[in-house]
Amino acid sequence: MTIAPGKHLDRDRDAMAREFYRRLAETGTAATTRCARCGTTRFPPRSRCADCDAPTEWIELPRTGRLQAFTTQERALRYGAPTVLVLVELGDAVLPGVVDGPIEALTIGDEVELAAERVEELGLSLCRFRPAARP
Amino acid sequence: MPVYALAAQRYLHDHGIEPAAVAELAVRLRERAARNPRAELRDPLTVDDVLGSRVVCPPIHKLEAAPWSDGAAAVIVCSQELARQRGWPGAALTGWGEAHDDANFIPFGRDLTRYPWIGQATEDALARAGRTRDELDVLEIYGAFAPAELMTYEAMDLCEPGGAAAAVARGELENVNLSGEIFEQLTGRAGERQLAGPQAGLVQAEHGLMNGAAVAVLEASG
């Protein structure tokens, strides 16, 4: 299955999204873009910098990061409670993903590790995170 | 809704705000609604009612969320001269502003509790109108959820970051969100809720997912 180009996305953005998911599926690592001129890292990836319009370059993000915020939703197509929706600070970027609940077990700042999850129905790997292994 | 909830969680966390302080906003807004016969939900609420309501999307309770409602509105725009000739009540649009974050969706990677585009739209509208915040007699500000509304007050520089809940609890911001009747207020038709001769008002609306804002300054057109 392929992702149909969204009506509101230009072709460039669609290509950047495809590259993100390709890398995630093939390497298990999340990547995004950094401006080659001003060095600003943004997520989602973009071919040009939103701040200075210079071309960007791909960078790999670390696999471990910290919870910026999290919540659950009682009704959802895919990830209803107790699955927890999270924002994770991964290096210089913040990525959305999911963590297994219960929500009560989590605290802002918890260290989590990316564990890409293959979803056959979508033909994609998505960002699932797990509590980072304690050293 | 999870986007608002994620922001709300950070808001409470970053500023050490108690859930009861957020619930207080819903209670106060309901008090105003109770006085407006055209409001949809008019039964009085207590902080305990709000905190005891279902947690729809943590930390947001059901009674801190706007209900699903159908509504309709019409705005007639004409010259002041025509309105006077016909004897139509009217308010003058004297300032407007619109601003958007550069992300076309959720602005990941920013401070989840700050919305500078709301501040920009507010500044632009006030500058066009030649008004200051202190000169505003009545403000109507959009809040899909109570925590988002508090963060919007702060983004509009009506109080300091993290200070909106405390300001509401102290009974400040009394001229904000009286009951959605800014036009009635500025045209002297708000019945028992009428303020004494308000001259300048401001309305703020959100578009996108808290990533864009539109603001207008309306003035009594005597």
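Chain B touches chain A through 19 residues (CB under 8 Å).
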